[in-house]
Design goal:
Structural class: alpha/beta
CATH architecture of the largest domain: 3-Layer(aba) Sandwich
Number of helices: 10
CATH superfamily of the largest domain: Vaccinia Virus protein VP39
CATH class of the largest domain: Alpha Beta
Distance between the termini: 45 Å
C-alpha cells in the first residue's frame, strides 16, 4: 500500500460487506481491508481511489475519512473524558476552516455507560477547544453544517473522522421520484443483480416489480440488457414507468400489468435469462400465508419462464419455508445471503433452474 494511504470507513446495508469490498477493489483499485463489521468496512487506500468509488458506487450508503482510531480502556462514565482527550488531539484545524460551521454525528455499537449525545457533546467541545488553541473559530450548526464530524464508538473502539458523503444516504437514488410502500433499498437490489450472475445483453424479468427498483438498477449497470417489468397492481406499474423514465432506461423496458400466473402464457416458456424479484412478505400488507401462496405461484411460473441456464433470485424474511418450497419445485440453490432490510432480517436466496451437471 502506498505511503499516502488514508483510512476510510465505508458503510452499506448490513450483510453486503463482502460485495462492497469487491466493488471497492474493482472500482477504486487496491484497498487493504483492516476491519469488517455489520454494515461497514474499514479500508486503507488513497483518497483519490475512494473519490472514484463514491462517484459510481451502487452498494455504499455513506463514507468518512478516519482521522483517529483508538482503543477505549473503559466503557464507563470516565470513557467520555477519554473520548474528549482523544478528540482534542486531532488536528481539526487542518480540516475545518476558520469560521466554518460543523456538526458531530455519533453512533454507538455495544453497551456503554454514556449515550451518543454524550459522545457528540464531548467531541464537539474538543473540536471547538482545539480550534480555539489554533486561534480559529467555528460554529455548531446541527441542521446545515458545512463539515460533518463523525464519532463512532464500536464496542471498545473509537473512530473519529470527517464525512465524505454528508447527511443524505447514498442509497436514496435520484430516479426514485415515486416511492412504493414496500420498496427495496437500491443497494440490496444491486446485490441481487450481482448474485444472479446477470450479464450484459441478457433479458431480466421482475414479475413483482413494485416501483421498478430492480429493473432500473440492472439497466443502469448493464447498458445492453433489457427488462420486463410486471406487477398485478396498475398503480405499481405506473410508479415503475415514471421511475424508469426519470432514470432514462424506459426505452429498454417493457411494462406488463398481469398476475404472475399469466406470464408464461404471454411471454412464452424459456423466454427470460434472469428472474429477480422482491415478493410480498405478508408483514406490512396481507398475511404470511397469502405471501407464501404468492411465492408458490412465482416459483411455478419461474420454472416455465426461465431458460435452461437461467437463475431466480428473490428476497424473503421466511427463509426456511421459501427455501423448502423452491426445492420441492425442482430449483437448485447456489447462494444465499443474510441482509437487514430496514429493521427486518431477510435472506437473498439464489436458485438455478438446472441442477448442477444437467444440460
Amino acid at each position: 500500500m502506498e505511503e499516502n494511504a488514508v483510512l476510510f470507513t465505508i458503510k452499506t446495508v448490513p450483510g453486503l460487506e463482502d460485495l462492497l469490498l469487491l466493488e471497492c477493489e474493482l472500482v477504486a483499485g487496491e484497498c487493504q481491508l483492516l476491519d469488517r463489521r455489520p454494515g461497514r468496512i474499514l479500508v486503507s487506500t488513497e483518497a483519490s481511489r475512494i473519490a472514484r468509488l463514491l462517484e459510481t458506487t451502487r452498494l455504499a450508503t455513506s463514507a468518512y475519512a478516519v482521522l483517529a482510531r483508538f482503543h477505549l480502556d473503559t466503557t464507563g462514565p470516565s470513557g467520555i473524558d477519554r473520548i474528549y482527550e482523544i478528540a482534542l488531539g486531532v488536528e481539526w484545524e487542518r480540516h475545518i476552516a476558520n469560521g466554518e460551521t460543523f456538526a458531530v454525528r455519533s453512533e454507538r455499537v455495544g453497551r456503554h455507560d454514556f449515550t451518543s449525545i454524550d459522545v457528540s457533546r464531548a467531541v464537539g467541545q474538543a473540536v471547538l477547544d482545539r480550534l480555539g488553541e489554533a486561534g480559529r473559530t467555528a460554529r455548531v450548526h446541527l441542521t446545515l453544517p458545512r463539515r460533518i464530524v463523525v464519532a463512532e464508538v464500536l464496542e471498545r473502539e473509537l473512530l473519529l473522522g470527517l464525512s465524505l458523503t454528508g447527511d443524505e444516504s447514498l442509497h436514496r437514488r435520484w430516479y426514485r421520484v415515486r416511492e412504493h410502500t414496500a420498496s427495496l433499498k437500491p443497494p440490496i437490489a444491486f446485490a441481487m443483480i450481482v448474485l444472479s450472475g446477470m450479464r450484459d445483453g441478457e433479458l431480466l424479468l421482475d414479475p413483482m416489480c413494485g416501483g421498478g427498483t430492480i429493473p432500473v438498477e440492472a439497466l443502469l449497470y448493464l447498458e445492453s440488457s433489457r427488462a420486463l417489468c410486471n406487477d398485478k397492481s396498475s398503480k405499481s406499474v405506473e410508479m415503475a414507468m415514471e421511475n424508469s423514465m426519470t432514470a432514462g432506461v424506459a426505452c429498454r423496458m417493457e411494462f406488463l400489468n398481469l398476475d404472475v400466473q399469466e406470464l408464461p402464457g404471454v411471454l412464452g416458456e424459456e423466454s427470460v435469462d434472469r428472474i429477480i424479484t422482491n415478493p410480498p412478505y405478508g408483514i406490512r400488507m396481507g398475511t404470511p400465508r397469502a405471501a407464501l401462496g404468492a411465492v408458490r405461484r412465482l416459483l411455478r411460473a419461474s420454472r416455465l419462464l426461465l431458460k435452461k441456464r437461467g437463475t431466480l433470485v428473490l428476497i424473503t424474511p421466511d427463509r426456511e419455508r421459501v427455501f423448502s418450497e423452491a426445492l420441492s419445485q425442482g430449483f437448485a440453490p447456489y447462494c444465499e445471503k443474510w441482509v437487514m432490510h430496514g429493521d427486518l432480517e431477510a435472506w437473498i436466496l439464489c436458485f438455478s433452474k438446472t441442477m448442477p451437471g444437467a444440460l
